[in-house]
């Protein structure tokens, strides 16, 4: 009986020791959590950390330990916390901004959020495909994977089958993206956005347009984009081109000639340039050019399919960024004299223009 009593006593002491041990373990775990995992990291300034694709949780912890962000005990606790909360597989690759004062627990939250540092690239309205590719290739945070930069190779690389040259098929906008976004992914995104905007505009088109397809609307929009930087004039200019197309008149628009000249364009259009034998030369050929000539904005797309009504068939630059619109060749000729030739025009032409009191261009000067 005395032996059984002694055994029971020893067993009770043993249980007590186990209880104390577990209590201390819990206290230690709580201390690890509250102090080690919730205390700020040693870096007193904002910093950045990059997780390469395929990096394991242990590798990240070891790297943070080498950098001095997590000591060995905290790194162990950090890995344990990630596995306990089933976040080990939720950590996403990328470049992260870490604010000063972030705790190890907060660091885990950041790494599983996927909210990586975003970089931006603005594709301006009105640039051409060649300029677009140059801009994409020049960005230091875009991963350059395209081996050949000619139009056909680029279109093949982004998985798009298109019979036409890719001019105008990419939407001008400001794009945000994480580091190491590939050039292919960037271009695919810009292509899809333009396809969406073009389809939306086409569905909103007015009746009786001389445009048979969304692609023709895109082509006209690109010309409108290059003709004016004045937002209020886009629909007016589109209206002029629509009426000329309806009447079978040549568009006679300088931006298409400039596009036809390509790198030979030196900033001036000469009489001989208007005779260049190119399907893009709308002084020589009737109808739209075979492809867009630039990246049109959303506003230009809307103008192309919702042009202003009116009777204007001509316009001329006034020298202040805006244009003067005319319904007749006579008024247009007067406007050219008044706004462009000015004193360079022979006196007899200025006198001739003055014979038309109905010409508002003459009255404006």
UniProtKB/TrEMBL annotation:
Catalytic activity: a peptidoglycan chain = a peptidoglycan chain with N-acetyl-1,6-anhydromuramyl-[peptide] at the reducing end + a peptidoglycan chain with N-acetylglucosamine at the non-reducing end
Swiss-Prot/TrEMBL GO biological process terms: cell wall organization; peptidoglycan biosynthetic process
InterPro entries noted in UniProt: MLTG-like
Broad enzyme group: lyase
UniProt cross-references to Pfam families, sorted A to Z: YceG
Residues flagged as site, Important for catalytic activity: 227
Any GO molecular function: lytic endotransglycosylase activity
E.C. number(s) listed in UniProt: 4.2.2.29
Descriptive protein name: Endolytic murein transglycosylase
């Amino acid at each position: 009986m005395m032996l059984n009593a002694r055994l029971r006593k020893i067993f009770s002491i043993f249980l007590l020791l186990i209880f104390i041990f577990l209590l201390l373990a819990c206290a230690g775990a709580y201390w690890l959590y509250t102090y080690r995992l919730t205390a700020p990291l040693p870096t007193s300034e904002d910093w950045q950390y990059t997780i390469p694709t395929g990096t394991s949780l242990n590798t990240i912890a070891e790297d943070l330990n080498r950098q001095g962000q997590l000591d060995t005990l905290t790194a162990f606790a950090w890995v344990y916390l990630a596995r306990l909360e089933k976040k080990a597989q939720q950590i996403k690759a990328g470049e992260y901004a870490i604010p000063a004062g972030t705790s190890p627990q907060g660091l885990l939250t950041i790494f599983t959020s996927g909210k990586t540092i975003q970089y931006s690239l603005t594709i301006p309205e009105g640039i051409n495909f060649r300029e677009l590719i140059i801009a994409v290739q020049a960005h230091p945070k875009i991963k350059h994977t395209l081996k050949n930069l000619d139009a056909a190779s680029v279109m093949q690389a982004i998985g798009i089958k298109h019979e036409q040259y890719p001019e105008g098929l990419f939407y001008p906008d400001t794009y945000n993206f994480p580091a190491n976004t590939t050039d292919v992914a960037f271009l695919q995104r810009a292509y899809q956005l333009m396809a969406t905007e073009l389809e939306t505009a086409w569905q909103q088109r007015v009746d009786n347009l001389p445009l048979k397809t969304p692609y023709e609307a895109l082509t006209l929009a690109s010309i409108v984009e290059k003709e004016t930087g004045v937002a209020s004039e886009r629909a007016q200019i589109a209206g002029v081109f629509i009426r000329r197309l309806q009447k079978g008149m040549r568009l006679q628009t300088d931006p298409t000639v400039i596009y036809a000249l390509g790198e030979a364009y030196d900033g001036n259009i000469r009489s001989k340039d208007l005779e260049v034998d190119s399907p893009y030369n709308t002084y020589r050929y009737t109808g739209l050019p075979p492809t867009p000539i630039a990246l049109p904005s959303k506003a230009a797309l809307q103008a192309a399919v919702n042009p202003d009504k009116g009777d204007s068939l001509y316009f001329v630059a006034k020298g202040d960024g805006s244009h003067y619109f005319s319904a007749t060749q006579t008024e247009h000729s007067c406007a050219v004299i008044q706004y462009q030739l000015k004193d360079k025009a022979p006196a007899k032409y200025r006198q001739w223009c003055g014979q038309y009191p109905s010409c508002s261009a003459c009255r404006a000067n």
